[in-house]
Amino acid sequence: MVLPPLFLRTVEESGFSAWLRESESPFAFYFVLLFHTFGLALLVGANAVIDLRLLGIEREIPLMPLKRLFGIMWLGFAINAASGVLLLIAYPTKALTNPVFYIKLVLIAIAVWVMTKLKTEVFGDSSSSEATMMARGKSLAKWSLALWIGAISAGRLLAYTYKYLIFPC
Question: Coil, strand, or helix at residue 58?
Fold first, then answer.
């Protein structure tokens, strides 16, 4: 164990963590997980629309109006950040002792960085032509799609790759 056992045990033994994990309330773990999925759909779905358009799919859709999707992406990111913290509180040992969790976080951090670069480099100059925007964004769009696929895959693998679900007694 890399993390101090006292930290993991303290979080897991808190009333809130136990409630999230064990409650039959519809507002506990599965509700949080549902919202994590909604946030993911907003964030990655809107991002994929921009990425695929930059890669030449559906060329009849103008690029510049897609800039409005960045607000949806940030809303999705906020939902995922909040629900992700709650999921982490529910099972801190499961996540924090799993290297796949850290791979997921790194992939998300890089994907968000790419997302901000897309906004500034591709959509930053409203006088740019579509050809210029596509040329600036093609490589970023490829990276974005690959990073989000990696982050989603790592997130799904968390359910199957953990060594400890809760702190071993």
Answer: coil
